[in-house]
Amino acid sequence: MKRSRIIARDLTKTFRDDGREVAAVQGASFEIFDGEFVAIVGPSGCGKSTILNMIGGLVTPTAGGVDIDGVPVAGRAPRQVGYVFQKDTVFPWRTVARNIAVGLEYRGVGRAEQERRVREAIGLAGLAGFEEAFPATLSGGMRQRVALMRTLVVEPEILLMDEPFGALDTHTKINLHAELLALWESRHQTVVFVTHDLSEAITLSDRIVVMTRRPGRVKMIHAVELPRPRDVIKLRETDAYAHEYGALWHVLGEEFAERA
Hints:
Layout: E1 4-17, E2 20-33, E3 37-41, H1 48-55, E4 63-68, E5 71-72, E6 81-84, H2 96-106, H3 111-124, H4 140-152, E7 158-162, H5 170-187, E8 190-194, H6 198-204, E9 207-211, E10 218-223, H7 239-259
Parallel strand pairs: 3-8, 3-9, 6-7, 7-8
Antiparallel strand pairs: 1-2, 1-4, 4-5, 9-10
Helix pairs in contact: 2-3, 2-4, 6-7
């Protein structure tokens, strides 16, 4: 039996906006197990990123709470957690290699070990030859690889990803799906992945948490019945993928219909 890594209990978050209260998330509960890849999907504004930020200790819940490895998350990011944001957030004044190394520097990792890990990360991300390049000379997909490897190089046990490929074109996104799955299948970190792209969620995930429109509640937790390893291109041509998409789209469509 897999051990539990993340437990969200009745997560609720209300923001104040111009003197009024806006409920972003209400009573969201779920559990994520060791080595799972879990996506969170739902209509725009349903609180997906807010939930991720509460898991990561960046936002404090109004009510409810999150435990990671049995310890409550209390206003700070747990050490075992890494975060990849929607924007690539690379430092324009640092080269590819020095961008990837920044987390290792902050943690006081020795120079020789830094160089070993960075070299390995550059190879895994297909960035060989670009070690001394600056972000302004890279494509969006390459910059996002740098941001991903900067997080992975510190070897987080839990990886939180907030629509990391949302701004990329379809071709680049699919290539990065393949790379992310290859990395995950070699390390089996616990991943929580926020996306508005249902195809992306199905392609990557073991389970999908489907949220209602705001205030976001957990409407369904769906197990993706697709075998691994997955070919991200051929997968979309299968009847099994079409079945998964249809079942999830029906549930999400109810939320869009209610808003209309």
